[in-house]
């Protein structure tokens, strides 16, 4: 008897981590198959069980055989095995299916049953860990990515607030005007309605408060509230310095205003896009999940279901190693401060979003596939769904939970197309009309086709939608100009920063070079399956800034309806270009301070 040793290797010739039928593990080595060969040429026996680990999305196994064989069963819809039958030597190739979406970080497992004509059965336990995938290759999209290890971050300016001093007076309301006149202080100068309230200075707050509370002539007494000069909230997040649009728009004052507690109305922004990465630590707590109405409308192998994760696919590299929906969402709602958990070598604080402490959350609705394209019907259904209508998903009626539908006040559409067929336009615009008629603000990217014919972009041009153009920094009196790619037309209603990769006027540096005027936000690196941050440009980046501000106006209760919130943005916008509304900027650049009633 003679023992033949057969190695199992991956697609690049690397030894795989496998296990023999005895259960003994051989880390880092090829499997040693105990194939017993009879001296007289008997058919070799196969192991009853074997583990196979895919590296780079692929693996191969080989066995000696002299007869017919067949793969009789594959348990795992993500796995492709070829060939599935043959004669003689067995050579099996394992691949992650090219049309499958990998939406989770946990290992994927499958079971493959191999049978021979001699009656031998082998159970192959196949495992694929997305965290070690290396099948993605190719150029990234036109974006800039920071690796924390090679970025020099200057010190942040942190707002330092001293503890508030004790009140210096009491506001005492007497039961009668006569009692008030007999008090030890002068009545407040607040009109006849407050003639029974006097301000009583105090050097001993607790004692005077106790004494006046016992006075039978006193109806109520309380410490006089103190106001303070509003400063600025300057985030300490590591990459905030690259988010030039926020300070340029005055957001540090907006964030300081939020600390007064004035933003108390819950608002949900439905982001209809490529989906989002729930596992990005900078979005923790900002997203509504599957049980709260999140939905995937894309029929691309992931299935239309309640998980709108922007997934990985083996062919994703052709479309860029980036998550558009995650980038858009971060502009609105990336968290402030230290992150709970992150990847080795990654930033512990990242970036910030516009809404800070306001009760604004994002409802992810996936309608664009990993190639960045989506069907009209999928997007129209998502708009109607976000508006509270019942829609059919995989043959089942789906409707937002009532508690969530009541808070969806804004829909962000960083997507679009130059449609010309009236039927296509009607399909999309009818959905926008449903949302608008139900009192939801629909803000849509104006389009990036100015240099390529400036075709009208839908749904931005739909009646009921608010089209947002992109601006960037300029060396002129206003400091702003239209980004060269941004569409123009009578449908443009507002403008917001979308950036320009060709300029570097923001004053920051990246790796020793001027940082381009692009919009920096959360992203995902599929090649390493980890969070990242990147800079992108476009009206896709402008629209969520307008959506976030609309949500903040509603959260602060400055208006009653989303339509009024959009009108307030238009009325308070910084007029750029010709006086009044024009086809480049619409009503002008969003002005958060004026829209939110904050003194400059």
Task: Offer a few descriptive terms.
600 residues, alpha/beta, Immunoglobulin-like, Rossmann fold, 3 domains, five-stranded mixed β-sheet, 11 helices, 30 strands, protease, Peptidase_S8/S53_dom, hydrolase
The share of residues in extended strands comes to: 15-25%
* Global shape: globular
Oligomer: single chain
Assign the structural class, choosing from mainly alpha, mainly beta, alpha/beta, alpha+beta, or little secondary structure: alpha/beta
Termini separation: 90 Å
Low-confidence segments: 1-43, 131-164, 187-193
CATH T-level topology of the largest domain = Rossmann fold
* Tally of separate helices: 11
> Fraction of residues in helices?
10-25%
Number of strands: 30
Arithmetic mean pLDDT: 81
Biggest sheet record: 8 strands, mixed
The CATH top-level class label of the largest domain: Alpha Beta
| CATH architecture identity of the largest domain | 3-Layer(aba) Sandwich
Plain-language structure description:
- It is a single chain.
- The termini are far apart.
- It is globular and about 115 Å long.
- The protein has 3 domains: about 1-130, Sandwich (Immunoglobulin-like), CATH 2.60.40; about 170-225, no CATH class; about 240-595, Peptidase S8/S53 domain (Rossmann fold).
- The strands form 9 sheets. Strands 17, 18, 19, 22, 23, 24, 25 and 26 form an 8-stranded mixed sheet that branches. A 5-stranded mixed sheet has the order 5-12-11-7-9, with no helix packed on it.
- It has about 600 residues and is an alpha/beta fold.
- Keywords: Hydrolase, Protease, Serine protease.
- It holds the Pfam family Peptidase_S8.
- One of its GO terms (molecular function) is serine-type endopeptidase activity.
- Belongs to the peptidase S8 family.
């Amino acid at each position: 008897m003679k023992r033949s040793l057969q190695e199992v290797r991956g697609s690049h010739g690397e030894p795989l981590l496998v296990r023999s039928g005895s259960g003994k593990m051989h880390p880092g080595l090829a499997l040693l198959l105990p194939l017993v060969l009879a001296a007289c040429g008997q058919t070799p026996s196969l192991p009853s069980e074997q583990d196979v680990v895919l590296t780079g999305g692929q693996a191969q196994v080989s066995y000696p055989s002299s007869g017919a064989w067949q793969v009789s069963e594959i348990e795992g819809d993500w796995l492709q095995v070829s060939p599935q039958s043959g004669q003689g030597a067995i050579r099996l190739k394992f691949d992650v299916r090219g049309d499958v979406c990998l939406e989770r970080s946990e290992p994927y497992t499958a079971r493959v049953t191999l049978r021979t004509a001699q009656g031998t059965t082998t159970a192959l336990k196949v495992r694929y860990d997305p965290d070690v995938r290396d099948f993605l290759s190719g150029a990234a999209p036109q974006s800039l990515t920071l690796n924390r290890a090679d970025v020099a971050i200057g010190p942040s300016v942190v707002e330092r607030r001293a503890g508030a001093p004790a009140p210096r007076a009491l506001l005492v309301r007497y039961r009668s005007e006569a009692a008030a006149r007999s008090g030890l202080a002068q009545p407040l100068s607040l009109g006849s309605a407050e003639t029974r309230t006097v301000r009583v200075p105090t050097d001993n707050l607790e004692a005077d408060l106790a004494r006046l509370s016992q006075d039978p002539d006193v109806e109520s007494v309380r410490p006089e509230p103190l106001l303070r000069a509003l400063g600025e909230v300057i985030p300490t997040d590591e990459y905030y310095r690259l988010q030039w649009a926020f300070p340029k728009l005055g957001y540090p004052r907006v964030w300081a205003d939020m600390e007064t507690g004035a933003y108390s109305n819950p608002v949900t922004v439905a982001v209809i896009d490529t989906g989002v990465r729930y596992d990005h630590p900078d979005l923790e707590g900002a997203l509504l999940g599957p049980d709260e109405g999140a939905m995937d409308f894309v029929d691309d192998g992931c299935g239309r279901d309640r998980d709108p994760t922007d997934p990985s696919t083996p062919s994703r590299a052709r479309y860029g190693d980036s998550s558009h929906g995650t980038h858009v969402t971060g502009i609105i709602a990336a968290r402030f401060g230290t992150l709970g958990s992150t990847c080795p070598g990654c930033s512990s604080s990242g970036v910030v979003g516009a809404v800070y402490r306001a009760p604004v959350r994002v409802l992810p609705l996936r309608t664009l596939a990993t190639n960045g394209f989506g069907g009209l019907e999928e997007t129209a259904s998502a708009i109607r769904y976000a508006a509270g209508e019942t829609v059919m998903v995989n043959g089942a009626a789906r409707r937002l939970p009532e508690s969530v539908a009541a808070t969806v006040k804004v829909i962000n559409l960083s997507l679009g197309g130059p449609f010309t067929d009236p039927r296509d336009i009607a399909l999309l615009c009818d959905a926008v009309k449903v949302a608008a008629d139900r009192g939801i603000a629909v803000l849509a990217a104006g389009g990036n086709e100015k240099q390529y014919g400036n075709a009208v972009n839908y749904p931005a041009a739909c009646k009921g939608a608010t089209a947002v153009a992109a601006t960037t920094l300029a060396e002129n009196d206003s400091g702003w100009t239209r980004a060269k790619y941004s569409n123009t037309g009578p449908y443009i209603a507002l403008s917001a920063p979308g950036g320009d990769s060709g300029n570097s006027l923001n004053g920051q540096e990246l790796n020793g070079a001027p940082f381009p005027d692009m919009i920096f936000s959360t992203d995902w690196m599929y090649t390493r399956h980890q969070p990242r941050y990147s800079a992108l440009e476009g009206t896709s980046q402008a629209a969520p800034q307008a959506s976030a501000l609309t949500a903040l106006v509603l959260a602060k209760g400055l208006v009653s309806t989303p339509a009024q919130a959009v009108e307030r943005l238009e009325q308070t916008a910084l007029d750029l270009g010709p006086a009044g509304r024009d086809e480049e900027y619409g009503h002008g650049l969003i002005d958060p301070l004026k829209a939110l009633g904050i003194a400059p």
